[in-house]
Every structure is written in C-alpha cells, then in structure tokens.
C-alpha cells in the first residue's frame, strides 16, 4: 500500500514540475493572442506517456503482472471501500466556479469556461465509453468487463487540468490545487477494486489530453455561441439522480 501511494505522489510531483516548466515557457511574449489555444508538443508529452503506458499494460506481461501484484497487495490490506471518488472527480471544476464567484477570477468568463469544460468532458466521454466496450477488460472485482480505461480518473484529471489552465497565469500554485483530488480519485479507483493501475494511468492521460483539446477547439466552438446582439448565458450545476452524480450544463441563447 505504501509503495502505491509513494509512486503516485512521486508521479504527481513530477507532473507538477512539468506543468511549471510549460507555464514558464508559455510566459514568453507571443505575437498571436490565439496561440494560447494552440497545441504545444510539451503539453502532449505527459498525457501521451500516460496513455501509452495504459495501452501497453493490456499486452505487456510485466505490466500485467504489476497490475495483479498491486491488486493482490491491496486485497491483503483490505481497505474500506468508500464512494468519495464518485465526488472528487468533479471537485476541481466546482473549485473553479466557486473561486470565480468569490472574486478570484480565472482566465475565462462564465460562458467561455463552461464551453471549455463541457467540450473537455464530452471529448473524454467520447474516448472512454467506446474504448471500454472495444477493449472489454474485466474489472478486478469481476463486476463487468468495462475496466479500461478509468472514466472517473479521466474526468478527475480533465477537471484538474481545466483548473490549471484557468489559473496558471495569475495564481500558479492555486492552479495545481485540483490535482490532489484527481490523484485521490485514481488511487481510490484501485483501492475500491474497480480498476487496475494501467486503467487509471490511461484515464489520467485521456483526461489531460481532453482538456488540452478543448482549449484548442475553443476559438472555433465559441464562434457558434457568439451572435451579435444576443444575450447568451451559461452555467454549470451538480446533479444526483439514480445513484449517479455529475455536472449538468445549461446554455441560453
């Protein structure tokens, strides 16, 4: 158990340093204001490695053994199964809206950040759900064969990356506050016997990449929602229905 937490925290530290490096690079003067929405190869390195690891864990005997040995160690300690991971996946997004409401403004206004967040979660879902049915990997608890990749972890890292992108310029250390919740979500998907390590790592990569794609697409998508003399409103709200928690989005045009 200690090994799992240590490796996870080490990965988080390395990811934080990588984000800081990218941020410092982004602070250099730019000629085109839209370049903030462009894909930079440095932003793709970490999520690509995560996704690559997850895919490799499906075929590599060594990584399969790591999945099984980790799960065996978890079963030996018999940790309590909790459902906090159903909620923590959305905490970073809630923090962004809460901070903006309290006066600590992020990069975008209410409508624009709602478009970006909605796009990110849609992309993440569009990748995760079909992949689960294509791969058909059994869950550790045997409940079904929809283990790969972890959707909870994908959403958690998508919202954490969203928080980072919104606050990285003016409140850098605050922008990292979403990642502990994302890491917690990933850890507890394994502790709750719902996912293998490879599922969680791949989910993290998908979530990060989904948010980066959402920012890249934003200038194009925003044109759809921008009409002259129109009063557009957008807001995000939590919902709970049939034992399912999530974020709802509403747009008025």
From TrEMBL:
Membrane-spanning segments: 171-188, 200-218
SUPFAM superfamilies tied to this protein: Acid phosphatase/Vanadium-dependent haloperoxidase
Domain Phosphatidic acid phosphatase type 2/haloperoxidase: start-end pairs: 115-215
InterPro entries with a match to the protein in the record: PAP2/HPO (IPR000326), PAP2/HPO_sf (IPR036938)
CDD domains xrefs: PAP2_like_5 (cd03394)
Keyword terms of this UniProt record: Membrane, Transmembrane, Transmembrane helix
Identification of the protein by name: PAP2 superfamily protein
Species per Swiss-Prot/TrEMBL record: Soonwooa buanensis
